[in-house]
Amino acid sequence: MRSSLDELLKAIWHAFTALDVDKSGKVSKSQLKVLSHNLCTVMKIPHDPVALEEHFRDDDEGPVSNQGYMPYLNRFILDKVQDNFDRIDFNRMCWTLCARKNLNRNHLLISDDDAFKIWCIFNFLSEDRYPLVMVSEEIEYFLRKLTEAMGGSWIEEKFEEYKLQLSSKHQCLNVWELIELVGMGHFSKGMDRQTLSMGINEVFQELILDVLKQGYMMKKGHKRKNWTERWFLLKPNLISYYVSEDLTEKKGDILLDGNCCVESLPDKEGKKCLFYVKCSDKSFEVSASDKKKKQEWIQGIQTCITLLKVGRPAPHHEARQKRRELRQKQQAEQEELELRMRELQTANENKQRELEAMRKKLEEAAANAAEEERRRLQTQSELQDLYRVEMEKEKMVRQQMEEQVAQKSSELEQYLQRVRELENMYHRLEEALEEERQARQDEETVRKLQARLLEEEVSKRAELEQIHLYQQQTISQTQAEKQELERERLVKESALQSAMQQLQQLEDDRWGALEQYEEVMKKLADAANNTKSWKDKVAHHEGLIRLIQPGPKYPQKITNWGPAAFTETELSLREKDWQEKKNRPPTPQ
Transmembrane region positions (predicted)? Predict the structure, then answer.
């Protein structure tokens, strides 16, 4: 995608440069509006007419430079580019803007359409730096391709002579110089205009339209199984076939991918030089004109399938990238070599300066050495005179020293005697010190023993104190527990007394209730004796008259015959009989 945008930028750069009439590097905003509108129209991008004014609203100083237009171009146009527009129409729009100003049609042997194709080829082969130029290596590559397409032979010496003329132009050409070079026929002498035009078209189709091979072949139909002559175009990812080579009526495409294959077929049905292309959904049988064409087509198709399988670009794209990488590598090596040469030259100049400085130092050192030698000789003679004077003084001093040595010898003897006496005293002092040291060791041993006994006594005392403290804690804890138990006992005794009092109160209440019950039962018995005689008199009138009986303490039952119309027993029997009737299953009809 980055390389595709670079190709688009090259064409846009030509258009922008053509609008720069004064060659000041700036273009007016009105012209940029027209350019931007045309770009959006050709590239099928929604155009925002206000975006340009908004983008440059703070720039009121006049025309806009290429550097100022690039942010707008990237943001509002190139970032929105999709692969859904015709690149040839895009290139023609940019070509129309720049050719009107720059193309000199005088003495050209080619048409405007051929010049446009050379312009597209230049954009493809030019370097990715501005202003755009084509280096001599790419010029040679293009001219070789053009010569082969025209059927001519490449003359290396002629191009080498032309390269010598390019040395003054840094071994490169711009697009208009390249169009003039081809259009004036410098490398196509002996060729007519039609041959030159066909050669340019063939190179254009290969490099720009990615047509790797083209030509007439016979194709077998899928439905009628008849053989028809078609014009085939091989591209990196498909094979297109047309009715004729003018490409006006397209009949179909054979889509290629990494899973396709191409194989040779034996002659059959009167057709020779057969091969077939097998895809995932269909297979296509094709017949070439001869064995050479057949082999070229099989090899070309197999190359495309292999490149698709490994994800590599078309051969001419890959070859261009390799040439650029090789040039970059050579340029880097050349720059490194030049850098090393400059470093070596600098180092050599530094060495020369160092040698010159050393020579001057040596001359100064020789002059200093001669002066030093003269001074040394003068100093030596002065030292010899001084030495003779010193020798005489030394003799006198030696005599005085000999006398002093004799006197010192006697003093030394006396000193040695005193030293011997001091040595004897020192030996006796050492013996006394040894005895004192032994006594101190004995004293230290006794002191350590006493200290150990004292430590043991302190340890025992500490253990006794811990035992005593533990006993005190145990006694304190026992007393606390005893007090707690005493409190609990008092609480429980108090609760027990309260419970006994409540129990006695309940007992008294129970006896009172029993006395009331007996009194009530006695009243009931008296009432029963009073009404017994009345029951005997009206026994035969049971269904007509009901004696008024003392009602119960609980609420009376109320029936259809009024309050207390039935006894409790009769009412229970009637309820039981009614419940049984209710629970009895119904008799089937």
Answer: none
User: What are the backbone dihedrals phi and psi of residue 96, each rounded to the nearest 5 degrees, phi first?
Assistant: -60, -40
Q: What CATH class has 1-102?
A: mainly alpha
| Region of 151 on the Ramachandran plot (φ > 0 left; ψ -120 to 50 alpha; else beta) | left
CB 205, CB 211: distance < 8 Å:
yes
Q: Name residue 149's amino acid.
A: A
The CATH architecture annotation of domain 213-313 reads Roll (2.30)
pLDDT at 545: 45
What pLDDT was estimated at residue 507? 79
Give the other-Cβ count within 10 Å of 487's Cβ: 10
For residues 502 and 509, give the distance between their C-alpha atoms in angstroms, rounded to a whole number.
Answer: 11
Q: Name the 3-class secondary structure at 217.
A: strand
Does an H or E element contain 285, and which? strand 283-287
pLDDT at 149: 85
CA distance linking residue 315 with residue 299, whole number of Å = 13
Low pLDDT (below 50) residues in the chain: 1, 544-547, 561
Half-sphere exposure at residue 370, Cβ-oriented, CA atoms within 13 angstroms:
5
Residue 285: phi and psi, rounded to 5, are -100, 130
Q: Are 101 and 31 in contact (CB under 8 A)?
A: no
pLDDT 10s digits, 363-386? 999 999 999 999 999 999 999 888
Q: Rounded to whole angstroms, how far apart are CA atoms 125 and 141?
A: 9
* Ranges of each domain in the chain: 1-102, 107-210, 213-313
Question: What separation, in Å, do the N-terminal and C-terminal C-alpha atoms of the chain show?
Answer: 98
Residue with tokens 């003679």: 381
pLDDT of residue 468: 86
Rounded to whole angstroms, how far apart are CA atoms 553 and 79?
Answer: 106
- Identity of the residue numbered 334: Q
Position 413, amino acid: E
Contacts of 137 (CB under 8 A, 6+ apart): 323, 327
Please give the Cα distance from 153 to 92 (Å, whole number): 32
How far does CA 566 lie from the centroid of its chain?
102
244 close to 222: Cβ distance less than 8 angstroms: no
**pLDDT tens, 69-95?**
788 788 878 888 887 888 889 899 999
Predicted TM-score (pTM) of the model is 0.55
* Rounded CA separation 547/534 (Å): 8
> 262 by DSSP, 3-state: which?
strand
Contact yes or no for 347/353 (Cβ under 8 A):
no
| Among 258, 228, 227, 254, CA closest to 240 | 254
Cα Dmax for the chain: 197
